[in-house]
Amino acid sequence: MNQGPRVVISVMGRNQVGIMAAVTKVLAEKRVDIVDITQKIVDDLFLMMIVADLPEGSASVDMLNQALRVPCHQMGLQVVAQHEKLFKYMHRV
Amino acid sequence: MPFEIEEVVETLSMVALHHFDIRTVTMGISLRDCISSDVAETERKVRRKVTTTARDLVATVNAISEEFAIPVANKRIAVTPCALVLDPLPPGSGIRLAKALDEAAASVGVDYIAGFSALVEQGMTKGDREVLESLPEVLSSTKRLCSSMNVATTKAGINMDAVQALGPTIKRVAELTAKQGGIGCAKFVVFCNAVQDNPFVAGAFHGSAVGETCLSVGISGPGVVRRVIELHPSASFDELSNLIRKVAFKITRVGQLVLDEASRRLSLPAGIIDLSLAPTPAQHDSVAEVLEAMGLERCGCHGTTAALALLNESVKRGGLMAGTHIGGLSGAFIPVSEDRGMIRAVQDGALSLDKLEAMTCVCSVGLDMVCVPGDTPPEIISAIIADEMAIGMVNNKTTAVRIIPIPGAGPGDTYDFGGLLGEGIVQGTSRYSPAGFIRRGGRLPAPIRALTN
């Protein structure tokens, strides 16, 4: 599969059943290829980071964000997909 | 795994919960090749230059913003100080140049275009005088155009003739835009030691040493800084400084990323990053609230100047290593109307004009978006400017005044300017007159420290 940009999808909110399912359903619909998933629960706070490759040409980061927003906001979750380069700039010297 | 989950979630929190954004990407454009002695030709050249050079600015910055999911609040243009373009043109040309710039800005979709400016600290040319004399009409008949005048430097002293003339000029601008609370004055700044590469309006202009064109970025993010301070209520000043430095580093890195990407995609040189933490009227996106998070009951109480000094220095230390070229104003902004915490501090009687003036000694800009009664005599406005210019001149730093005498309003009255300009609140001035001092005219000499060679 030809790859588009690599993105990091971060999810944060109250732990509940179905978060992973809701997010990955959107990713599958958008043909987003998951590279890695890290998930953690601190007290009752659910944190998740997904590193993924967008398919070339078809889905922009913005379109992915719009698609993720609907199910995640219904569940009271904060979610955002951002180009990987942002994290290299912010968190690596 | 290249990143830790905590790092990723920290970024998410900054954007989703704490109003993190980039305040502006500003394109500087030289107008020196548009200079001619025919006003119609100048208008044509200016329109073509701006609309061609900035054609893709807004779309490119929007694409970057979407890709990184980082809001960029404004896209702006800064041009060569217009006095240089007006020098060979007949009186009355100022308004025509201003309208050409305003229309060009509208057609490329930027929020503001700035640079209807003159640098007059040692005197005025024909073009400088045209800028001054056309200001009321220009600021009342254009929408996006911003203007500034540098009336003082540490090297030259203060042009008190210009300061004297600006009192009545600012009053006239307010009167001509009275229906909107004197909003024309929000688009005009008086400077001491103006910088040539400032991306922030209203005081941006493209200095003559900056090159043909370049891009600059102004950062924001007081909400993010406030949050990190709130999480450490008993941190010592040393620890506080470290915390702010770390978050300022991250904020500035995002600014550098946006600048690098914009520069690459538009094939234009990257200029500077301005480290000024710019507030917005949004809840919790306030510099005043950063200071209050340090332990001040209200911004403006005793201790505020020290807190601001700590904030300003820590942001600079953190940002310095994060950006390739740091420039512009690079100091915390304390505009009153644009910052909800500042407005509250004035409403509560905690923040006076005098305390604001003291705060300007340790941060950038100065008395910014300050509202005074509509019937304030022009010589008081000139004297407020003179005081602020003296602070900048003697301390070898940039200071500025953006003051709005709101027509028909008295102390405590408010006016909603809308958008990023926020809600102005009228502050009282001294009831004693400086008229005898202001009318002397001439130039206030430069301080001894100007003689450094």
Structure notes:
The complex is a heterodimer of chains A (93) and B (453). Chain A has helices at residues 19-29, 61-74, 85-91; strands at 3-14, 33-42, 45-55, 78-83. By secondary structure, chain A is of the alpha+beta class. Chain A has a 4-stranded antiparallel sheet, sandwiched between helices. In chain A, a hairpin with a 2-residue loop joins strand 2 and strand 3. The longest helix of chain A is centred in the C-terminal third of the chain and has 14 residues, at 61-74. Chain A is globular, with a radius of gyration of 13 Å. Chain B is 43% helix and 19% strand. In chain B, strands 1, 2, 3, 4, 5, 6, 7, 8, 9, 10, 11 and 14 form a 12-stranded mixed sheet that branches. In chain B, strands 12-13 form a two-stranded antiparallel ribbon. In chain B, strand 4 and strand 5 form a beta hairpin. Chain B starts with a helix and ends in a 9-residue tail after the last strand.
